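Quick entry, no commentary yet.
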Amino acid sequence: MSALEKFGVEIFTQRNIFERIAVDKPFRPDNPAFIFIKTGTIKLRQHFSDLELSANMFMVTDPQTIYEVVSVSDDFQSRMVSYKREFISALSLKFNRLITYRYFRQQMNRGVPFPESEMEVVWKSVNFLKYILDSETEMLYKKEMVEHLFSVFCYQMAGIISKEDNNSMNQMSRQEEIVFVFLTDLATYHLTERSVEFYAERQSITTRHLSSVVKEVTGKTASHIISLIVMNEAKVLLNSSKKTVSEISSILGFSDQYSFSHFFKKHLEVSPRQYRHQFES
């Protein structure tokens, strides 16, 4: 049984992080995670943009996003703290979870730089938590120790966030806020809602206004982003599940297999079956 299943948290290093992060194909994380970079760089593609993480940066990943590893440097050194949502919910943490959650949703899938001195402290506490998790010595209160050490880590991150939160929220323009809400809604509703009108109505703005703001902030149209997210979902289902193309088309809300295949080929120039064949050994 993995530490994640047994204790609700697991820590990966650069040596085994790629057991959980696929390198050669799009993937969706099973659980939310913090990724810390101490040295080197990793470039990830998420949804519609590339993100480069370098020394003294962290990012928060979530299971609603699909990622692809573009490149990793030879001197890449990292820690990934993967946890189950129900585990963190069960802890009696005394900071404002709403502020923390809002910050994470806003910063999700962005590289957040922080001072080397803060990275050093977080790195040490993560390493100690990993040491306890990996220890094969019989420990009477191991579960409680893991909970408390993970709580320490949560307080460290909340402390960093509370300093950053006011700045980041104040710096968010109205246009950025519209795009942020659009992407958050899209992560929730993309399996059933593909019209720009639906997402505009969610924010009580016109379709034209949403489209122009999204285009200005991201460089891509709202409809293109919707298609990209559906395509990413399709890729993951095709390369990591045994479901038939017909079942996948139904999951993705297409009326039939033909319309799904037509949509897929239009965007990738290969059929769903041809794409799947690339990953078959």
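second:
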Amino acid sequence: MAIKDTPEEWTVTATTTPFTGNKTSVRTDQVVMPDGSTVSRDYQVHPGSVAVLALDDAGRVLVLRQYRHPVRQKLWEIPAGLLDVPGENPLHAAQRELYEEAHVKAGDWRVLTDVYTTPGGCDEAVRIFLARELSEAEGERFEVSEEEADMELARVPQEELVRGVLAGELHNNCLVVGVLALTAAQGGPGLDALRPADAPWPARPFEA
């Protein structure tokens, strides 16, 4: 048997949306279980996100330190952002986020991995890109606001991030998954064997 996630959809007899926010909402579905019973399932409806693991020629990863109110911590993260426009090309969104948050562009883009962040309670899907051949972006820097106004930027050796992940010192989902996936790819088929940047993404279909 192949170890592979597969599409499936159980019968939903009723749906309500008890909360609608600026970017996300909460949905309640009445779902028919295998034994015929019906149960209520609440989950956050999310537009999806992209994240960028930007790796420079010295083996350092571009990271940001940002306050995250729900967990009351400043977390080290990789550049990331929402897919604000339905059907938006995730590569274009990732390039935008790298420019806006770090004022950096990249000459080589690959898909590092795709993840569901919290599939038990949220339908958010994230595509994590690997960006290489980094250089300073042209033009003026993007004007930041709110939490991003306090953001710090650094380039940290990959091995230091791996150490921090395994020591329980770094917790951001995309950073943890991204740096460990990068390390696994380097120790396996190599970075050039990663999927192309425009690889299909069934979780969030997009226009080319």
